[in-house]
Amino acid sequence: MPLSLRLTVPIVAALAGAALLTEAPPAVASPVSVSADVRVDTGRTTMDGVYTLAQATRGRDVFASSCQSCHTPTQHSGPPFRNKWFGKSLGDLYAYIRKEMPKNEPGSMSDEDYVRALAYLLRMNGMPTGSTPLTADSAALHRIRLDSVRAVSSTQTPR
């Protein structure tokens, strides 16, 4: 599984300096910054039931009140949705709708309403429900890939 980590200049300098130390480090170390853009592919996809039916049901109401005046459900399902979002992370889609929607007041809904709308989009696109609700945790959402076909693990045999 790929893991990308960007080392910032202070980290590289700190690591180089640590390699040269022959005595105990000073009592006060200088601050080291770490990039927050670390994504790990956990193999989890939207076909694993990553939202609840209750979230999608509430999301339908959010869509009706905040989205439907500009968008029809068919604009966000089937081939148009698949062509734009499948293979990307659920965090990418969440960030997009959070930043851009609703068009008349982007970012104006609560985090919970954005997650509900996201669950409704997944439901419209045939993604199965699960027992654990989605959260507005961006890092967790980035670890889930949008997919239309359940991946077969190496311990399963295809049917």
Can you put this structure into words, describing what you see?
The protein contains 6 helices and 4 strands, in the order βαββαααααβ. The radius of gyration is 21 Å and the shape is globular. The strands form 2 sheets. Strands 1-2 form a two-stranded antiparallel sheet. A two-stranded parallel ribbon has the order 3-4. The longest helix has 15 residues, at 53-67. By secondary structure, it is mostly helical. Helix 4 crosses helix 5 (111-124). The protein has helices spanning 9-20, 53-67, 79-85, 90-100, 111-124, 138-142, and strands at residues 3-4, 39-40, 44-45, 144-145.
Characteristics:
disordered N terminus, 159 residues, two-stranded parallel sheet, 5% strand, 6 helices, 4 strands, mainly alpha, two-stranded antiparallel ribbon, disordered C terminus
Distance between the termini: 25 Å
Strand order of the largest sheet: 1-2
Helix content: 40-55%
Q: Uncertain segments of ≥5 residues (pLDDT<50)? A: 1-40, 150-159
Run of helices and strands: EHEEHHHHHE
Count of discrete alpha- or pi-helical segments spanning 4 or more residues: 6
Alpha-beta classification: mainly alpha
Question: Rg, please?
Answer: 21 Å
Content of β-strand: 5-15%
Give the number of DSSP strands.
4
Main sheet?
Answer: 2 strands, antiparallel
Mean pLDDT, all residues: 75
In one word, what is the shape? Answer: globular
